[in-house]
Design goal:
OB fold (Dihydrolipoamide Acetyltransferase, E2P); 2 domains; five-stranded mixed beta barrel; 4 helices; rod-shaped
Length: about 130
Amino acid sequence: MIGATALGIALVVTAMPELGMLAVGAIAAALVAGAFGGDAVVQVVSFVVVSTALIAVVRPIANRHRSQRPQHATGIDALKGKQAVVLERVDASGGRIKLAGEVWSARALDHGSTYEAGQEVDVVDIEGATAIVM
């Protein structure tokens, strides 16, 4: 149980989920010792088996979930592809648009393009606090 506690503290400090799986293995070894009176060899074997099984099963599932993109875009990713209304003329040097209810500085993606007030434009990208439109 002391080992499980030490691994649990290390898990909280480092945020490495593998340490949590090792802590569960240490708890299994403590249960074997307490419930069945297992000697040191049985405790070590139970620790290794449980820890290895958890790492082999849980880690690939966690990696698969970590690599998936969230289904709901948030922040500036949610603004890309949205339509906006030009408030002040937008060209390659700048302008203003109304995007998602807020006023944004904007510039045209194409250097030769200009958009007049009242036109609808599509937001292609966000660079800092400036929307790139076309």
